[in-house]
Design goal:
The structure holds two protein chains of two kinds.
Chain A lengths: L2 H27 L4 H20 L3 H18 L7 H23 L5 H15 L23 E9 L10 H11 E8 L17 E8 L3 H7 L7 E10 L12 H8 L4 H8 L5 H7 L5 H26 L7 H28 L2 H24 L1 E3 L1 H18 L3 E6 L4 E3 H22 L3 H6 L6 E10 L2 E8 L6 H10 L11 H6 L22 H10 L3 E7 L3 E9 L4 E9 L2 E6 L3 E7 L1 H6 L5 E4 L2 E7 H4 L10 E8 L2 E7 L1 E9 L13 E6 L5 E5 L1 H12 L1
Parallel strand pairs in A: 6-8, 13-21, 16-18
Antiparallel strand pairs in A: 1-3, 1-4, 2-3, 5-7, 8-9, 9-11, 10-11, 12-13, 12-19, 14-17, 15-16, 17-18, 20-21
Helix pairs in contact in A: 1-2, 1-4, 2-3, 3-4, 3-5, 4-5, 12-13, 14-15, 15-19
Chain B lengths: L3 E5 L3 H13 L3 E5 L2 H10 L4 E5 L7 H9 L9 E5 L4 H10 L3 E4 L4 H12 L1
Parallel strand pairs in B: 1-2, 1-3, 3-4, 4-5
Helix pairs in contact in B: 1-5, 2-3
Classes of the chains: A alpha+beta, B alpha/beta.
Function (chain A): Involved in the transmission of sensory signals from the chemoreceptors to the flagellar motors. CheA is autophosphorylated; it can transfer its phosphate group to either CheB or CheY.
InterPro entries (chain A): Bact_Chemotaxis_CheA (IPR051315), CheA-like_dim (IPR004105), CheW-lke_dom (IPR002545), HATPase_dom (IPR003594), His_kinase_dom (IPR005467), Sig_transdc_His_kin_Hpt_dom (IPR008207)
Keywords (chain A): Phosphoprotein
Chain lengths: 696, 121
């Protein structure tokens, strides 16, 4: 409960106590004044009711004692005496002291409270110490059980509309619990001249399959249980399907419902026609009753078929280690296969070539299926976040709804596990810094309830995960000020929007005014960025002030094997992730001369900046006359990399570099080529960034 | 067009909390300080739902429910009473007067919203 409400309650309580004092003093003069007694009772009643509402439980339970006594006075069971007035005045002072202490944290005199209560109880003639403390209401989470099918007959009383109940709302609530078939029964309608236009003459037969349990169904009817006939019967336990193949016959259902008697049923059965048709034509039943029973039959059949279909697609559980071992072996195999292909090419032996090609094809398939085994939908992670959002919004007093999209998108299990923490952090950030408090949102003309949208989508051999909120957006000026404060940028630095937003990933950067228990743990976005980059992913922010922030995380599907392009510079081999490569073009000496050392190439009327890798890695020797530019696309920007030769596509098993080379810029790993040499895997996004910062 | 809900309660802080919660849920709110005030406002304002406390000066909750049900405009609207008494007698009395349902105090904002959603659809 917010402090705002607590404050309002305190003000109100102080007012009531002042009023109470004068009422009590008057009551001493006129002990029989019912109006005064009512006033005292109501003051106590309000303090109790509102007190418990806003978390003043001690005040509520104490006031309850006084209220009980005055309730007796009100009902003429107790008369007003001097002692009662004295005690109540003391109680009033005690409540005041409790209010004073509530926020300062001071102790109230519990001894005094106890004495007053004992006194009041004596007056009221209570024995013992039957304290009536107010029990906080626990919201019990519904136990999820196996789905059960219920047959519900809901017959509202004719005058149900008079209590403002709309039976359709109740039916809608049932629909929310599970699969639901509703049949309206209209045989209760009287002839027109006897009909009360404000009466309810319809009743409903509902078949509901739900895993929420019978109590959840009963809870729907909590307000109307006295105004309706309600029958809830279990018709099928769905865990016991295997034993009962066929559902009950129509006659059986009608008999169970009490729509037909056993004798009537026998009479109908003795004639060889369809039961339902017969029963209707014989006038034993009306059409709707039969329809309702048929609906039950159909409903149960459908639910069963669904369940059987789910059972049929069986799966086995395999320990993760075994899968990891398999993937590792496949990785080794891919390396060996590369050697085989290369050897075969060198031998110029047609038969060996044919075998090598066959092995290459099989290895590729084996790799794909081995990696597929480890693929899991990201949805399970998404649903965990729902809880996080719920708890955080309660804690912060914000109203936030989380929507998800693409929960079925599959990713390598290890990637999902490693993504968990960064994503949690990003969502926390959206909630903590992005989404505003409801009143702030309303003032800005936005709905009080904010939204955090989590989406996953495949893009090539990567997955894009987007966390978008409709909150305040990033405050560029605050980021700039903070950046200067922290010494990350110089005071006069001209930064593009993208660079500014990039600052929030700098270590120790946080724009939250106060350190909250949520984001201000000293763990910043820099940790998130590092974690994402460790997964060979990238992270990108766009934000519009007042409209929200969108963070896009791009992650490779798998960590083990990637498709890449093998290039050479001098005698060194390098690998570039194929997912990032757009095209390869030639770069002639003339092109270089024409660009006046500005490292820009003309590619189909567009200028593309390039990075000469030979210079960048300081590789000695002379480049060939015609070099190649491998044009990549990173975050929507095309950047070229100049190399000597482009060899071709390769499956690359990623080996991490040893500890000594772990932080080498521009290199994300290494791989072993077919001839046993080592090729370094280029970290394209990092290279682009490094060159950008150099130029600035 | 947002639905309008009236909250009748002599406790300013409860009124404030109910109003705040309902507004957050996207409803418009009319406040009344007791039963009499509520009936006067109901005569001129059309509301889609009424949430009333039971113990109020001038005219208590039961009286208000009866009075509201006598108005053509409120004949079928959901009326929810706030009770601290979990005992049935008050509930029954309220139901007999024409209340749709009840909320037991103390309640949390989300419990209030759940009941509003339940009776207002």
């Amino acid at each position: 409960m917010t402090d705002l409400h607590r404050q309002a309650f305190k003000e109100e309580a102080y007012e009531l106590l002042t009023e109470l004092e004068s009422s009590l003093l008057e009551l001493e003069e006129r002990p029989d004044d019912q109006d005064l007694i009512g006033r005292v009772f109501r003051a106590m009643h309000t303090i109790k009711g509102s007190g418990s509402m806003f978390g003043f439980d001690d005040i509520a339970s104490f006031t309850h004692e006084v209220e009980t006594v005055f309730d007796m006075v009100r009902n003429g069971k107790l008369s007003v005496t001097g002692r009662l007035v004295n005690l109540t005045l003391a109680a009033r002072d005690q409540i005041r002291a409790m209010l004073d202490a509530a926020d300062s944290g001071a102790e109230t005199d519990l001894q005094a409270s106890a004495e007053i209560i004992v006194g009041l109880r004596e007056l009221a003639g209570f024995a013992g110490a039957a304290s009536a403390a107010i029990e906080p209401q626990e919201v019990v989470e519904a136990q999820r059980k196996d789905p059960v099918t219920y047959r519900i007959r809901f017959v509202p009383q004719e005058d149900i509309f008079a209590t403002g109940t709309n039976p359709l709302n109740l039916l809608a609530e049932m629909k929310e619990l599970g699969t639901c078939t509703v049949v309206a029964q209209t045989d209760g309608f009287p002839p027109l001249e006897e009909m009360n236009p404000e009466g309810c003459y319809v009743h409903w037969d509902v078949i509901l399959t739900t895993d929420q349990g019978e109590n959840a169904v009963r809870d729907i009817f909590i307000f109307v249980e006295d105004d309706c006939e309600l029958k809830i019967e279990v018709v099928a336990e769905h865990s016991r399907y295997d034993e009962q193949q066929d559902y009950k016959k129509l006659g059986e259902i009608l008999l169970e419902r009490g729509d037909i008697t056993a004798d009537e049923m026998k009479a109908v059965l003795s004639q060889q026609r369809r039961f339902g048709e017969l029963a209707v034509s014989e006038g034993i039943l009306n059409e709707a009753k039969v329809q309702a029973a048929l609906a039950e039959q159909k409903h149960v059949k459908e639910v069963r078929q669904e369940k059987q279909a789910a059972d049929a697609s069986s799966s086995i559980r395999v320990p993760a280690e075994r899968l990891d071992l398999l993937v590792n072996l496949v990785g080794e195999m891919v390396t060996v296969q590369a050697r085989l292909s290369q050897t075969a090419a060198q031998r110029d032996d047609a038969e060996l070539m044919a075998i090598a090609e066959e092995v290459e094809r099989l290895t590729a398939e084996l790799r794909d299926s081995a990696l597929n085994i480890r693929m899991l939908p990201i949805g399970s992670t998404f649903s965990k976040f729902k809880r996080l959002v719920r708890d955080l919004s309660v804690e912060l007093g914000k109203q936030i709804e989380m929507t998800t999209e693409g929960a079925e998108t599959e990713l390598d299990k290890t990637v999902i596990e490693k993504l968990n923490d960064p994503l949690v952090h990003l969502i926390r950030n959206s909630i903590d810094h992005g989404i505003e408090l409801p009143e702030v949102r309303e003032a800005a003309g936005k709905p009080a309830r904010g939204t955090v949208h989590l989406a996953a989508v495949h893009s090539g051999d990567s997955v894009l995960i987007t966390i978008a909120d409709d909150g305040a957006g990033l405050d560029k000026e605050a980021i700039r000020t903070k950046g200067i404060e922290r010494g990350i940028i110089s005071a006069g630095a001209e930064l593009s929007e993208k660079e500014l937003f990039g600052l929030i990933f700098a270590p120790g950067f946080s724009t939250a005014k106060t350190v909250s228990s949520i984001s201000g743990r000293g763990v910043g976005m820099d940790v998130v960025k590092r974690a994402i980059e460790a997964l060979r992913g990238s992270i990108d922010i766009t934000s519009v002030r007042g409209q929200g922030t969108r963070i896009t995380v791009k992650i490779p599907l798998t960590l083990a094997i990637i498709e890449s392009l093998l290039v050479k510079i001098g005698n060194d081999s390098f690998m570039m992730p194929l997912a990032l490569v757009d095209e390869c073009v030639e770069l002639t000496r003339e092109d270089v001369a024409r660009s006046h050392g500005r490292n820009l190439a003309h590619v189909r009327e567009h200028l593309v900046p390039y990075i000469p890798l030979r210079q960048h890695f300081r590789i000695t020797g002379t480049p060939p006359d015609i070099e190649q530019i491998v044009i990549t696309q990173v975050n929507g920007m095309r950047v070229g990399f100049v190399v000597d030769h482009v060899i071709g596509e390769h499956q690359t098993v990623i080996k991490s570099l040893g500890r000594a080379y772990k932080d080498t810029e521009g290199i994300s790993g290494a791989t072993i080529l077919g001839d046993g040499t080592v090729a370094l895997i280029l970290d394209i996004p990092q290279l682009v960034q490094a060159v950008e910062t150099e130029q600035n | 067009m947002a639905k309008v809900i009236m909250t009748a309660d002599d406790s300013a802080s409860v009124r404030q909390m109910v109003t705040f919660t309902l507004k957050q849920g996207g409803y418009d709110v009319v406040e009344a300080v007791d039963g009499k005030d509520a009936l006067q406002k109901l005569a001129t304002t059309k509301v889609d739902m009424l949430i009333t406390d039971l113990n109020m000066p001038n005219l208590d909750g039961i009286g208000l429910i009866k009075g509201a049900r006598a108005l053509a405009s409120c004949k079928f609207i959901p009326i929810v009473m706030l009770t601290t008494e979990s005992q049935d007698s008050k509930k029954q009395e309220g139901k007999a007067a024409g209340a749709t349902g009840w909320i037991v105090k103390p309640f949390k904002p989300e419990q209030l919203m759940a009941v509003v959603k339940k009776v207002l659809g």
